[in-house]
What does this fold into?
Amino acid sequence: MKKILSNIFPTSPTISRPTTSFTKLLTLACVCVAHASPIDKKLDVDIDREGWLIDLSRASINFSSTTITNQDNYTHFTNSRLSGNSQLIMQFYGYMLADYYSKRFVFFNSLLAEYGETMVFLSPQRRLRNKTLDRILFSTGYTQRIWKLEKIGWGEIGPYAQLSLQSEFTPSLNLPYRKKFFRFAAGIRLFDGKYIENLKLNLFGEEDFSDIHNLIESMGVETGLVLKHTLREGVQFNSLLNYRHYIINNYPDFRNPEHELEYNLRLDTTLWSSFSISPFISFYLLKGRYIDKPASNLFVGVSLGYGKILKDNKGKPKGS
It folds into this structure.
């Protein structure tokens, strides 16, 4: 890692140990936030939103089952509905926010958990399990409130720094350990807009400590966009796009990432109270630096979900 960092950040001869990528990004974030802090007392921000916002944004399950029996005796029949094997498809998703708004800054905190599995029953004694999704992601970050784009309804803008820890529920195939990542990001974001919930551009440093005996560090650039819009009462459009490009890392060639793309599209329709039904499209793409063709995962389905704001901080009287 010392050799990698020296290509970007030359080491001073008076310093015996080179600074890590995380320290450099952290220093950069502190400098940006310090220079962005307004000196005057009058701030151009949304002063109606202050205090804790706790939101169980979504908890959903997508479940489908196909049961086929005695199909071996009917292989020559013309009815194709008796072909194939019994299978079970299950996907769980949960996302919760706990954000704290102050007059000059916001602490954004989130917890995301998702798991998906397909089980194919080849025979009463044989079954094939295929994990299609597995992620636990905790994020916390500081955002400086410096400017509200009131005239065009696009929310607030400011520099931010974020820490993230990612893992999984079960070890991946052919690995004796769970994947674990630590990320630090520093950049600028636009948030809480009428249509744009979050738009970000940042540098990131990543530490892959899945294998404690072989730590891997990466640096790169990342951008993301989250859109939300109420089409009519009880119907809401949601979209997420996130792109991450790895500029430099010390991964071995056979698993060296170049870029990854995640895109989710969902249409929530309220059934009753806080329950909704949602057709969705989920797409993920990963391109290896030394692999010609990228790999992708496309999932199309319908989910039943629940979401509720547990504590709101909008529209409180001043001083409450």
Remarks:
- DSSP finds two helices and 13 strands in the chain.
- Helices lie at 2-8, 21-36.
- The chain has a mean pLDDT of 82.
- The radius of gyration is 23 Å.
